[in-house]
Amino acid sequence: MGASTLVGGAAQIWDGWRLRQGDALLIREGRIVWIGPQSQAPTADKYIDASDGILMPGLVDCHTHLVHAGSRLGDFLRRLEGRTYAELLEGGGGIHVTVAATNATSEVELRALLLRRLERWSASGITTVEIKSGYGLGVEEEERLLRVARSVDSTMRVVSTFLGGHALPPHRERSDYVREVIEEQLPVCAPLSDAIDVYCDRGAFTLEEAERILTAGRSYGLKLRIHAEQVSYTGAAAMAARLGALSADHLERVDAAGIAAMAKAGTVAVLLPGAMLHLRDPAPPVAALRAAGVPMAVATDFNPGSSPVADLWSCATLACLTMGLQVEEALAGITRVAADALGLPDLGRLSVGSRADLALFDAPPGDRLDARVLIQHMGGHQARWVLREGQPVSLPLSSKSVSDGCQSGEGG
Questions:
Q1: In this predicted model, what pLDDT tens digit does every residue of 233-286 receive, in sequence order?
Q2: Is the terminal CB of the chain with fewer CB neighbours within 10 Å at N or C?
Q3: What is the DSSP string of 225-284?
Q4: Within its chain, how far is the Cα of 206 from the centroid?
Q5: Cβ proximity of 307 and 272 under 8 Å
Q6: Quick one: which of 204, 200, 202, 203 has its CA closest to 214?
Q7: Burial 73-92, CB ≥16 within 10 A → b, else e
Q8: What global pTM score does this model have?
Q9: What is the mean pLDDT of residues 396-407?
Q10: Can you tell me the distance from the alpha carbon of 286 to that of 83, in angstroms, rounded to the nearest whole number?
Q11: Mean pLDDT across the stretch 322-340?
């Protein structure tokens, strides 16, 4: 058997479901093999000191558009003047501005931009991020974006999602572009993708078009996700649930039938408060989702137009303040439930058999050592250290924190 590592001394642990006190974790071959009272911990080859910290699973950002170039300041200013997101998109702005800038940027520069963004994600304790394409809107262009996303997997665990169905390119016939997504983009992009997504809404793709795209993606073995009910009600959430989608994202205007379908299918609701806030949209019906038993994740939706929000912790707090989540729901939403939205049930939780992705946080100065204060204090939290499958990935572990063998009196 491989070498073992004991992580102990944390003031508190959030395990994905509940808060725990006085427990330790044993890691072997990248997975958690034991969790329990530190006084009963097995002997280990290494000890990682989590003293006076809040130990959590590595965070999961389950909805981002991280590969892009260019500015959308113009959109922001026009929305402040009263223009709507849908009006900008239908007028050739919005996503199309980013498509033009991204397609004019070299692959080398796109990768450099992505790596710079991921530095912030990693420092905040994120170990897994979903990255969508969708700013290429052409066969070679979409393939290039997915290739860039996959190229950084050694830095951050990346789940790549093909989103050729992000917008209709100007001056293209609808039927011709939908055919291209299904018959030309998908065969090239599927080998670089874990999932397929489509934006079904006013100004984007119809319900029938979205179903055709998702069904085609499923035939390539891709997991299904959807941008649903954001700008207007379309029935997309119910349709995606019927097809077995992992998640329906946004949901500001989902109806009771959509919620019931999601609950029956186990489809995760991914809440995106950054977009809701920037677009001044109403909140999704969180109370109805909760009552129906729909699991709720929280993500940044980081993109240059509708959610230029680069902090998952801020989104978790906003989900409580503007959408009505409880603090424990928000903590689950950026860990365990976010992992479920990506079809990764061994991430986002600290339990026997789970992958050993961990992040240690300090409480804000002078406050309680309690994971809930990280939601109360909005944003900016940086991890003291981060492990991915038991190995340090972000802030280096100091010689004080890691030693050969268990420290005296710790872990048996």
A1: 999 999 999 999 999 999 999 999 999 999 999 999 999 999 999 999 999 999
A2: N
A3: EEEESSSS--SHHHHHHHTT-SEEEE-TT--HHHHHHHHHHTPEEEE-HHHHHHTTPPPP
A4: 25
A5: yes
A6: 200
A7: eebeebbeeeebbbebbeee
A8: 0.94
A9: 37
A10: 27
A11: 98
Cβ atoms of residues 311 and 124 within 8 Å: yes
Give the count of beta carbons closer than 10 Å to the beta carbon of residue 287: 11
Count of CA atoms in the C-beta half-sphere (13 A) of 114? 30
Under the banding of pLDDT at 50, 70 and 90, the label for residue 401 is very low
DSSP secondary structure of 161-212: EEEEET-PPTT--HHHHHHHIIIIIHHHHGGG-SEEEEEESTTSB-HHHHHH
H or E element at residue 48 = strand 46-49
Distance separating alpha carbons of residues 75 and 97, to the nearest angstrom: 9
Neighbours of 390 (CB within 10 A): 23
Residue 183, judged by CB atoms within 10 A of its CB (0-12, 13-18, 19+), counts as exposed
Give the pLDDT mean for 160-181.
96
Q: Are 56 and 383 in contact (CB under 8 A)?
A: no
pLDDT surpasses 60 at 155: yes
Span 281-309, pLDDT tens digits: 999 999 999 999 999 999 999 999 999 99
Residue 405: pLDDT above 50? Answer: no
- In DSSP terms, 48 is beta-bridged to 7, 402
pLDDT band at 84 (very low <50, low <70, confident <90, very high): confident
* Token pair 């950026």 in the structure block, residue: 334
Angle at CA of residue 295, ends 290 and 299, nearest 5°: 110
* Number of Cβ within a 10 Å radius of residue 298: 35
User: Percentage of residues in the chain with pLDDT exceeding 70?
Assistant: 95
**Do you know the residue count of the chain?**
412
Instruction: Return d(Cα 354, Cα 57) in angstroms, integer.
Output: 10
Q: Residue ranges of the alpha helices (H) in 104-180?
A: 107-123, 139-150, 174-180
Report the DSSP pairing between strands 296-298 and 358-361.
unpaired
Q: Given the structure tokens 């427990």, which residue do they identify? A: 23
Burial class (CB in 10 A: 0-12, 13-18, 19+), 176: exposed
> In this structure, what token pair is assigned to residue 67?
């590969």
Cα separation of 143 and 137, whole Å?
10
Q: Which residue has the tokens 């137009």?
A: 305
What is the per-residue pLDDT for 130? 98
Q: What element of type H or E holds 135?
A: none
Average pLDDT of the segment spanning 130-136: 98
